């Protein structure tokens, strides 16, 4: 395990920590290293070679300076005390006993000869590596790039080939690598709403992009006033200096700094002065070294013009007229600015209709008239798509008349459904083979830049080699990267990431579920507990709860990138409290099972106090537009378990410990919001905390469970969504006609309600009867639990 984690980290040049550096076991030379992003081809070529104290690095004037600098740093961090540089054919005699590294263009004669049987790189940004051992035991490493970027990426992969040997020695895996990216454009678009990243955070992101072989960063922060509202105005001198430094840092990491300006809120498309102002804004960035530009026209209205001149030039506002105006502007910029400035890549744009597969007058005008060189971005079948398939990509490309460039709105957390969330699930549910159907993928990250690295690590890996991408393995690699290869910190991040796994869409159904690892353990716990194997149930889940409890200390122990710790600070605090609360509740269950009722009550009270403390935490200072809210940790799984465990304890001697009878019952409701299938009554007892029932917009709406058999009911639990009740009643019935109100509730907030009842005569139906809504929407409940025991 340690060796695998170390390998995943070292691919990105992480200094080897003692916890991850372990001696290679016998036979390890035959094992292939794990590399992220996965190479197109990586095979065994021979024995591993040692990193010697002295290394000779052979370069020439065509060697990429950034690659040469990086390889010297990597070797020095892994056993070399001296790295001497030599020209081809001018190595000194003693070099026969030293590790020799050839770095440069694949066509260089010494490199071409050294490759011997390794395919010469033939793709842009491609490279080849061959590691061999000489007759005197010294090794030779050949790093051959198709271009400068290829050389740089060869060095990045070399870091994944290093493994520790003995106490302080390092070896390089004896392999052949033939590699190149599957997609031409890979990286991120800083396109979220809310507090933009700081200058230092962006500089760090450029280094991170280089580490993961991402070549594109699009500067498009919605809340940079000079990007959007003040697009006509030049940047102040100090801001321009920062952008210039960012452009240079990007270039040093072979990242295309792409400057985006979004004029759609106020531009007069037909006004020559506005077009001149736009080109002047681009020219200022060109003078700083920028060679890639984007004009996003998303999140604007095309039902009104910003000036009367556009009405005269393009007709009344509407889809086709808006497209005509936008095409006119974009073609002008492409043909009179992009095409006339040396080295500038084709113009990128974001259409106003960016997230669907519906053919419209807007799209028809775009594909008929937009210059073929212009690159069109698309977000998938929705703003946040649950998946992207090859067929969908082909359909989008047909709509716009060119391969689309995906703006993937993950892990961005600037919209309402992400309130209180870090999105740390792996990059997933994008179909292998998309590289044949897209021009590239960029991920839209969170306001938290370091926490975003988990998903961006995956997105970059997928875009590099989508057919070899494995989400779970890559997720572990991402956590190891953040942890500097430290095994304990990596495992803690995986536990923490599972608690931040839920990935919402703009709709009601998330595209990644919450806490799948924990949820599986909780389900296994209740199965074992209800089967009578209670000691085993507690022991297994308690071990994982302790992992949750200990995760904050490991995350803050110094190995994890400091920026990540800062980004996640409030969530890490909450995790510690929830973990302690879970351990205490499990200990309470164990005590009660032993017959120690007083101890159980004490432990359960301690757990509830810790839960209250966790619920009282708020994100501060808030980077997101959702402000100071409760940091959500394992919600719908962890809190639901604690509620159910608490109910079981409170009702230990009532109705056989009060099992949840709702899943075996049938749910019906008075109404369903807009008759949508995703909000039907059956969602309240399906066992999935991510789904929910939603009613029509009336105060007297209800939802009920018809139990599988008459039962004595001891408690009801309701896991409310944000559309909860100011007041509601719990009612029971034996026949579904005559109802008895057993409780009237006026909760202070939306959350998990536990309503205790007096188990009397058996009932068949249990209903939540609404009295007063809290919002203008209806009522919405994730899960409706009915605890009791069948009457027989």
Q: What's the structural blueprint in terms of helices and strands?
A:
Blueprint: H1 2-10, E1 41-44, E2 49-50, E3 54-58, H2 65-76, E4 82-86, E5 99-105, H3 109-115, E6 127-133, E7 139-145, H4 148-160, E8 162-165, E9 169-172, E10 175-179, E11 185-190, H5 199-211, E12 216-219, H6 237-252, E13 256-260, H7 272-287, E14 292-296, H8 308-314, H9 319-336, E15 348-350, H10 361-369, E16 375-378, H11 390-400, E17 404-408, E18 438-443, H12 453-464, H13 471-482, H14 487-499, H15 516-530, H16 534-555, H17 562-567, H18 569-594, H19 597-616, H20 638-650, E19 659-660, E20 666-669, E21 693-694, E22 702-720, E23 725-733, E24 740-745, E25 752-756, E26 763-773, E27 780-790
Parallel strand pairs: 3-4, 3-5, 5-7, 11-12, 11-18, 12-13, 13-14, 14-15, 15-16, 16-17, 17-18
Antiparallel strand pairs: 1-10, 2-9, 6-7, 6-10, 8-9, 19-27, 20-22, 21-27, 22-25, 22-26, 22-27, 23-24, 23-26
Task: Summarize this structure as a short list of keywords or feature phrases.
9-stranded antiparallel sheet; 792 residues; Chitobiase, domain 2; disordered N terminus; TIM Barrel; Methane Monooxygenase Hydroxylase, Chain G, domain 1; 8-stranded parallel β-barrel
Low-confidence stretches: 1-29
Q: Determine the fraction of residues in helical runs and give it as a percent range.
A: 25-40%
Tally of DSSP helical segments: 20
Strand percent estimate: 15-25%
CATH architecture of the largest domain: Alpha-Beta Barrel
- End-to-end separation in angstroms reads 51 Å
Shape: globular
Our Rg estimate from Cα atoms comes to 30 Å
Active site: 299 (proton donor)
GO molecular function, one term: hexosaminidase activity
Signal peptide: 1-20
Keywords: Glycosidase, Hydrolase, Signal
């Amino acid at each position: 395990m340690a060796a695998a984690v170390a390998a995943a980290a070292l691919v990105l040049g992480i200094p080897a920590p003692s916890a991850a550096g372990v001696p290679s076991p016998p036979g390890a030379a035959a094992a292939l290293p794990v590399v992220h992003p996965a190479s197109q081809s990586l095979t065994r070529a021979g024995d591993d070679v040692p990193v010697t104290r002295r290394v000779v690095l052979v370069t020439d004037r065509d060697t990429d300076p950034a690659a040469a600098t990086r390889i010297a740093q990597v070797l020095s961090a892994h056993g070399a005390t001296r790295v001497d540089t030599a020209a081809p054919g001018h190595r000194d005699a003693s070099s026969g006993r030293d590790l020799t590294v050839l770095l440069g263009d694949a066509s260089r004669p010494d490199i071409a000869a050294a490759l011997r049987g390794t395919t010469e790189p033939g793709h842009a940004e491609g490279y080849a590596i061959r590691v061999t051992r000489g007759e005197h035991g010294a090794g030779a490493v050949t790093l051959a790039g198709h271009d400068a970027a290829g050389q740089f990426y060869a060095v990045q992969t070399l870091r994944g080939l290093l493994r520790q040997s003995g106490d302080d020695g390092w070896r390089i895996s004896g392999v052949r690598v033939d590699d190149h990216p599957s997609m031409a454009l890979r990286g991120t678009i800083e396109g979220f709403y809310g507090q933009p990243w700081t200058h230092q955070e962006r500089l760090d992101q450029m280094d991170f992009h280089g580490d993961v072989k991402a070549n594109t960063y699009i500067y498009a922060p919605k809340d940079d006033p000079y990007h959007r509202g003040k697009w006509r105005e030049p940047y102040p001198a100090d801001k321009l200096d920062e952008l210039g430094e960012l452009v240079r840092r990007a270039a040093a990491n072979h990242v295309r700094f792409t400057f985006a300006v979004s004029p759609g809120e106020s531009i007069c498309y037909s006004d020559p002065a506005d077009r001149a102002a736009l080109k002047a804004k681009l020219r200022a960035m060109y003078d700083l070294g920028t060679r890639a530009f984007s004009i996003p026209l998303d999140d604007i209205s095309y039902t009104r013009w910003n000036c009367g001149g556009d009405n005269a030039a393009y007709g009344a506002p509407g889809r086709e007229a808006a497209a005509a105006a936008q095409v006119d502007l974009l073609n002008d910029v492409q043909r009179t600015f992009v095409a006339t400035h040396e080295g500038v890549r084709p113009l990128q744009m974001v259409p106003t209709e960016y997230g669907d597969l519906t053919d419209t007058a807007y799209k028809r005008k775009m594909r008929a008239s937009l210059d073929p060189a212009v690159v069109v971005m698309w977000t998938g079948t929705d703003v946040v798509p649950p998946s992207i398939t090859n067929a969908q990509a082909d359909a989008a490309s047909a709509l716009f008349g060119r391969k689309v460039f995906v703006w993937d709105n993950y892990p961005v957390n600037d919209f309402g459904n992400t309130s209180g969330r870090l999105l740390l699930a792996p990059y997933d549910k994008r179909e292998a083979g998309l590289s044949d159907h897209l021009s590239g993928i960029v991920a839209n990250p969170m306001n938290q830049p370091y926490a975003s690295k988990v998903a961006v690590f995956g997105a970059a890996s997928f875009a590099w080699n989508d057919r070899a991408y494995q989400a779970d393995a890559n997720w572990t690699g991402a956590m190891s990267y953040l942890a500097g290869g430290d095994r304990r910190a990596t495992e803690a991040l995986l536990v923490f990431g599972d608690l931040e796994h839920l990935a919402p869409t703009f709709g009601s159904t998330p595209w990644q579920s919450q806490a799948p690892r924990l949820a599986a353990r909780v389900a296994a716990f209740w199965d074992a507990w209800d089967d009578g194997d209670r000691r085993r149930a507690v022991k297994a889940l308690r071990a994982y709860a302790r992992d949750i409890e200990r995760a904050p200390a490991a995350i803050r122990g110094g190995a994890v990138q400091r920026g990540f710790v800062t980004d996640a600070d409030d969530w890490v605090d909450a995790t510690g409290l929830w973990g302690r609360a879970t351990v205490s509740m499990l200990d309470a269950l164990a005590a009660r099972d032993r017959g120690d009722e007083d101890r159980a009550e004490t432990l359960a009270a301690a757990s509830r106090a810790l839960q209250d403390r966790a619920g009282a935490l708020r994100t501060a200072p808030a980077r997101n537009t959702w402000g100071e809210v409760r940091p959500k940790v394992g919600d719908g799984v962890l809190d639901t378990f604690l509620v159910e465990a608490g109910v079981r304890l409170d009702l230990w001697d009532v109705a056989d410990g009060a099992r949840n009878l709702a899943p075996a019952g049938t749910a019906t409701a008075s109404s369903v919001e807009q008759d949508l299938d995703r909000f039907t009554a059956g969602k309240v007892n399906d066992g999935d905390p991510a789904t929910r029932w939603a009613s029509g917009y009336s105060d007297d709406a209800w939802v009920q469970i018809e139990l599988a058999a008459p039962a004595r009911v001891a408690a009801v639990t309701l896991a409310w969504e944000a559309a909860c009740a100011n007041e509601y009643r719990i009612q029971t019935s034996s026949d579904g006609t005559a109802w008895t109100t057993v409780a009237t509730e006026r909760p202070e907030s939306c959350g998990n309600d536990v309503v205790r009842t007096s188990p009397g005569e058996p009932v068949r139906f249990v209903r939540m009867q609404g009295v007063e809504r809290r919002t203008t929407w209806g009522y919405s409940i994730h899960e409706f639990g009915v605890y009791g025991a069948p009457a027989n």
